[in-house]
Amino acid sequence: MKLGPKAAAAALVLSASLALTGCGGAANSGSAAGAATALTLGTVQDVRSWDPAQAHVGHVLQPYQAVYDTLILRAPDGKLSPMLATAWKYNAGNTRLTLDLRTDVTFSDGAKFDAAAAKANMDHFKKANGPQMAQLASVKDVTVVDADTIDVNLTAPDPALEYFLSQAAGLMGSPKALGTEGIRTEPVGSGPYVMDKAASVKDSQTVFTARKDYWNEDLQKYQKLTFKVLTDLTARTNALVSGQVDATILDPKNGKQAEGAKMKLAANEVDWQGLLLLDREGAKNPALANVKVRQAINYAFDRKTILDQVMLGQGTPTSQPFGKASGAWTEELENYYTYDPAKAKQLLKEAGFEKGVTLEIPSVPGFETQISVITQQLADVGITLKVGAALTNTYTADIAAQKFTTIFFSLFQGQPTVAIDQIVSTKALYNPFKNTTPELDAKIAAVRNGGADTGTLAQEVNRYVVEQAWFAPLFRVNQMYYHNSKVNVTPQIQQAVPSIYNYSPAK
Amino acid sequence: MIRFILKRLGSGLVVLFVVSALTFFLLYVSSGSIARNILGDQATAEQVAMKEHELGLDQPLVVRYFSWVADALSGNLGASWFTSEPVANSLATRIPVTMTMVFAAMILIAVCAALIGVIAAVKRGWVDRVVQVGAIIGDSIPGFVIGVILVTILAIQLGLFPATSTISPESGPDAWVYSMSLPVIALLVNGVTGGAQQIRSAVIKQLERDYVRTLRSRGIGEREILFRHVLRSAAPAGLTVLSLQLIGMLGGVVIIEQIFALPGMGPLAVAATGQSDLPVVMGVVMYTVVVVIVVNLLVDILNGWLNPKVRVS
Fold first, then answer.
1. Looking at the partner chain, which of B32, B84, B263 has a beta carbon nearest the beta carbon of A203?
2. Which of B168, B190, B192 has the most A C-beta neighbours within 10 Å, making it the best mutation to test the interface with A?
3. Containing H/E element for A472?
4. Which of A17, A87, A192, A274 could link A473 by a cystine bridge, Cβ 3.0 to 4.6 Å?
């Protein structure tokens, strides 16, 4: 048994060569390289259920838009325009919204879209217990006025209702399919695309083809649409750079790699990051009851430097929790708290805490760097940040149970009432200690009844929580949405990923 | 032999039961308000209560466990709390992906490790040293690092392979081979180097035994000694190593599948565990335990076939 060095070397590389020789076929560079009218998007997770009542927000809404039309269409700049509803109007008290509906739309199973179908969808949404069920919480009932008109009757005015009808609550599925087992795995809508179930693999890819005779050609720009599920950030980067997907969401660090491969960025500010000083009445941490302590915390941060170092500058420093597109945002609150350690110390002294304050916060997976930087900056003014165990998947329940007096988080910046019910009002999850004052209650009530002026009225709520230092926002962060040169992408306000209508083939 | 197999299967069932109970109760302790996790941070307390009732979470834990056992015994593993997809469906679509990869890697590991190990043991000298050094290097680089390097060079730079999986029903077997090549290579490097090392020492040990010297003194050819006697005696050690590697691979494959976005058991296990999606986690755990039991049983049977002494004991 004589083996020369050559043979031995060959044996060493056998593992690789065996695997390689088995696959000498032609390279397939992915569907993106096919017809110019195919679009492949890298998504973070698969759709849990195709029942429209189970739809969520932002990137979890996008796939639903491929198969379901909404009653109202939301343009990239946030303006609402007709879709399945051609016109809509409130009564004088803003308690009844009347919608006129299109009469030329059918669902992919042949059922006709009409007032009864719209009512069936909204009734289904109200009882299906989906993640966005709260969107129709103010809706008492829906009545069919005639074949193409419905009345949405409210228990109280809800300035966000029209917006909600452009989101999950507005998705219209076939009334024949609603509530059946089938619609969970195969959507039945009136939208621009229909699912190619045979080509789709759960948690891997979902394939859609253009629906013939779709009523609105302007919204149907591709013949084939594929959502490729790429949970792992590295996998998303690799898929984009190698041309397997045309667009996907990355982060600033991986974005550099994508930029190196000539990918284009469609950046968009959607979330804010910072501290939520939850225990404002001092139920568990008396120091937090003092507004000067809360303000001192705000003065302790060099927001610009943190942004540059941690987020590679991708975002805008801010002192206000309300987003720029909400209408509640004001220029004067943007830099309300500038970096001023001396002032922070002075405020602590005035509050009687010159010996220092201790705050306890949970560690938050993914935000370790931010937390360690703010720990340092707070220490510089005499505030000790004690970082505890990490938030687990039970964090929402833990927050609701008042387990934390302060947390660091990244939160969505929505429409004024959406934001208020997320972080300010007594029913907001992120106001677990139910803090409020008569003054704030009045301001919130004004927003809810404000009709067209909700944005301006919400500025007062914004000003209140900024002056009272309910939070210590650091910055709004850019969502790093990258795409190749084969596709044009328009960012959608308040969404990390654009609506499906915002993509078009590059000429 | 049949009694032996039945005994092993019986103890396997006990293990299955114990592991299922442990997993169920441990997950219960760590899961907290699962209903709220499902509904997200904008759900109201009423919604949460409604969901808990819907999922049967308002029942006592022991009742829930035994109703799970009863369902499982009748072949019903339940449905995901998050997606409502039946667990049996999830497993049926994902196990083939993972198992194809694991078995392809195992077969290659067995062939390559045996070849390299035997050559190193027989030739010794510089060949052996190269194998030894290679084993240390191979062992010290984690599979996922190899995966990332392979993607960067072979997929992104050279465009020879897809960077992430392109498996779908419409793609033919060539797409499968294509998508699986890089993950399989990433999986097998550690196995080959580790396996070769073990097989090398087992073969060397046998070559030093008296019976080899006796055979040689009788003028029997080296080739015959090696293939008819030494390899047969060294095989049990090799088999044990391979079975351990296969079981270890069930863990390693999780990360590899994430990197290559393969719709196998890995992403399912990670997502379900992160969300405390109990029915799915239970399904994944049951699958893992069954694989471990079956692999161990097969190795015992094979060992018995190779070496009658094992059977008796």
1. B263
2. B168
3. strand A471-483
4. A274
- Distance CA(B55)–CA(B44), nearest Å, equals 17
Contacts of B2 (CB under 8 A, 6+ apart): none
DSSP for A69-115, please give it: -BSEEE-TTS-EEESSEEEEEE-TTS-EEEEEE-SS-B-TTSPBPSH
pLDDT at A401: 87
Query: B207 contacts in A (CB within 8 Å)?
Result: none
Predicted pLDDT at A312: 92
Write out chain A residues lying below 8 Å of B130, CB-based.
Answer: 8, 12
Is the confidence metric ipTM above 0.85 for this complex? Answer: no
- Taking residue A129's Cβ as centre, other Cβ atoms within 10 Å add up to 19
Which residue of B54, B82, B165 is in closest CB contact with A204? Answer: B165
**Residue A450: CB partners within 8 Å, gap ≥ 6?**
A159, A456, A457, A458
Q: Is A34 on the interface with B (CB under 8 A)?
A: no
How many Cβ pairs closer than 8 A exist between chain A and B?
A: 196
**Is A207 close to B168, i.e. CB distance below 8 A?**
yes
Tell me the residue ranges of DSSP E strands in A364-402.
Answer: 383-390
- The 10s digit of each residue's pLDDT in B135-189 is 888 888 888 899 989 999 999 889 888 898 877 766 778 888 888 899 999 999 8
CB-CB neighbors (< 8 A) of A45 in chain B: 271
pLDDT at residue A11, rounded to an integer: 37
Beta bridge partners of A407: A276
- End-to-end CA distance of chain A: give it in Å, rounded: 65
Q: Running along chain B, 313 residues long, what does each successive block of 10 average in pLDDT?
A: 82 90 84 75 78 84 89 89 88 90 92 92 89 88 90 90 80 82 90 89 89 88 85 85 87 89 90 87 91 87 75 53
Residues of chain A where predicted confidence (pLDDT) is lower than 70: 1-36
Measured between CB atoms, does A394 come within 8 Å of chain B? yes
**Residue A166 region by backbone torsions, left for phi larger than 0, else alpha for psi between -120 and 50, else beta:** alpha
Q: What is the pLDDT of residue B308?
A: 67
pLDDT recorded at residue A390:
83
Residue environment code for B79-89, b if the CB has 16+ CB neighbours within 10 A, otherwise e: bbbbbebbbee
Q: What's the rounded Cα separation, in Å, for the pair B12 and B270?
A: 25
A475 contacts A311 by C-beta, under 8 angstroms? yes
State the DSSP code for A227. Answer: E
What is the pLDDT at residue B32?
A: 64
User: Which residues fall within 8 angstroms of residue B195, CB to CB, at 6 or more apart?
Assistant: B109, B110, B112, B113, B114, B117, B238, B241, B242, B245
Q: Assess A393–B contact: CB distance below 8 Å, yes or no.
A: yes
Question: Residue A393 and residue B47: Cβ atoms within 8 Å?
Answer: no
> Which is it for the CA torsion A414, A420, A426, A427, positive or negative?
negative
Q: Judge: A422–B42 Cβ closer than 8 Å, yes or no.
A: yes
B154 inside 8 A of chain A by CB: no
User: Nearest CA of chain B to the CA of A134: how many Å?
Assistant: 7
